[in-house]
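Sample A.
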Amino acid sequence: MKIKTIEATAVQIPMKPECLMITALGEHRVSDYVIVRVETDEGIEGVGEATVSERWSGETVWGATEILRRVFAPALANFDPTDIATIDERLDQCARGNWFAKSAIEMACWDIRGKVLNKPIYDILGEACRPLTFTNRFSMGAYDVPRARQRAQELIEAGFTTIKVKVGGVAADDIARVRTVREVIGEDCALTIDANCGWNTETAIHCINAMEDCNLALVEQPTLNDDYGGLARVRRETTPPVMADDICFDLIHAQELIRNQCCDVISVYPGKNGGLRKSKQIIDFAAEHGVACSIGSNLEFDVATAAMGHLVVACENMQIEKFPGDTLGPSYHQHSIAKNPLVIDWPTTTITDAPGLGIDVDWATVKRFRIA
């Protein structure tokens, strides 16, 4: 079997008004992502998704589309799509970085492999070590106090048992927001925070210690980009477990984080890590060193969310029971690109046992929301 064609289509779908995301990086109102279709000479197709964000990974929808069409597609012509390791090697030979663009092709190749073997991807990665339905946290934007209070109450009523609050801005505002949410949700609901590299080390330590009475279950990416020393210091000088996310894209990053004792948890997901195979390498390495992993998110559509779900189901060290992740992306958007959307009941997400990713793309919807 050989790769015949690789198509990349940029789409733009708006968020639901109640799900607009505000973080230390700014506001997220619409999602500009790239949907990839890989076709083989035997007529089997696979789909992938690049959930790019220039403010987060540095990738743009225009850059991802062009590197997929002009660099990766020609380089992979006539390659075996089921040989994932060789596909990854070839992509890395072609370009540095471009994690999400690479993951879209690799994701589509896993989809093809699953269809060829007539197995869901989690069965190829290993086997199901947890149910196909799993629990989510909810990531709340960095809202003002009145809106945070209202949103927290809505989320409790919706059944969430873990709520993540975005911080990383003005210290006093962040502390007030987190205190308000804790007041609303009570002590029985887990509360985590995520600074998205918005704080420097001193501010992070000050804020986290000031929130000690809020009983934080997890502190995600509290320090600046690439500041491994600062992250390690935060872990030493504060009480809650620390998660690394925005500074862990590949296995080398994970090795450095663990070598320098920077974190208790690593956020892993296929888009950020350049694909499912590379994500699993990080998860397995972390497991060997007693570091937990959980699933991160970039507000994906159904295709990439399905890939995330297969990773969660297949990998025991994706400790979502202790550190719930976020596989809610499709439900944040006003439209779905899938004919058979994932079942997302907000507190839970369910993937299918269909071969491959288990997602059939609605190409008419993709065409409707295509970015010229």
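Sample B.
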Amino acid sequence: MKNNIIFKRVALIILDSVGIGALPDAKQYRDDGCNTLGNIANHLQGLNLPNLESLGLGLIANIKGIKNNIASKASYGKMGERSAGKDSTIGHWEIAGLITKKPFPVFPKGFPDKIVKEFTAKTGFEILGNYPASGTEIIKHLGEEHLKTKKPIVYTSADSVFQIAAHEEIIPLDKLYRICEITREILNPYQVGRVIARPFIGEPSFFVRTKNRKDFSLKPPSDTLLNILEKNNINILGIGKIKDLFGGSGIKNCLSTENNHDGIHKIIDALKKVKEGLIFTNLIDFDMIYGHRNDIFGYAKALLEFDNHIPEIFTCLNDDDLLIITADHGCDPTFKGTDHTREYVPLLVYTKRYFSGRNLGIRESFADVGQTIAEIFNVTSLKNGKSFLNMILG
């Protein structure tokens, strides 16, 4: 690592789907009026998140229950998304400096016969389903038939995803993952964002999805921040689904997580052990467990759980560390439907060494985060994004 680096470590935490208000183009996505944090707060007559509040969350936008007249510990702002789309892959790619000009394709009527026939020919399996559905609902409807026929359940959503559900006793995990790998190759020419393994267990009427979900993402079409850091021998540790979202490109070392609680504790453990480089974390429960299921109370509880652990995260930070907390899109649980929402994302940036409390404004792209990290580690600038490092340093 080069001697002139100001910060030795950057901890980048993505609160998956924690949006902070509709983007100007939200209407094009039928998302006008969405506001994940704001609408949750209004529905619950206020949120109590004292540690995020102290970092300046209430200075970014009006959120009921969060004070907006404080001297914040962190620099604060919000970021707009320049990429076309509103899913996790596109959001993370943009954070890492890659702007996606064309959204990934979606399949509101299910996958075309050509894809299904190729799937059957190459995997040896006929399928059940093939329509947009909630993952928990489709295994209720088709799980018993799956047990009888041993056919995997294929479904999609409003996102660009090909999801494959199978009972772990009918199609073992290694076989399910292999089917997903084959499917990933089939779908690469179509630019489908993700293939997702969705294993479950149990008996009819009592099916439960397991924690063995695995994402097989499209690889980024060009280098991202991760590739550039890797080429410069900067240490990168992924926590959560980071490796999956980049198709493994630019990241080798990644720790899987069972849930947000596990992810938070892996962040804390990493801050105690990893001496330098980038610690890049995705906390998925906000999106997968609460946003997509319209669970407003569960979402608020998950926010409070993260908030409660912020002091412990702070105790693990050194003077030459930078903490960045942001998100990748919205998923407003109060909103119509169960899809992601096209939103600004919050930006909270904390360091012990330099004066904080600076207003970073409205950033034009998520890529500003990646560009800032590139400047911190003194590597090649990204093609997109504007660094806010000088604003932090004052």
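B remarks: Residues 43 and 334 are 8 Å apart (CA to CA). The chain has two domains: 9-101+219-393, 113-217.
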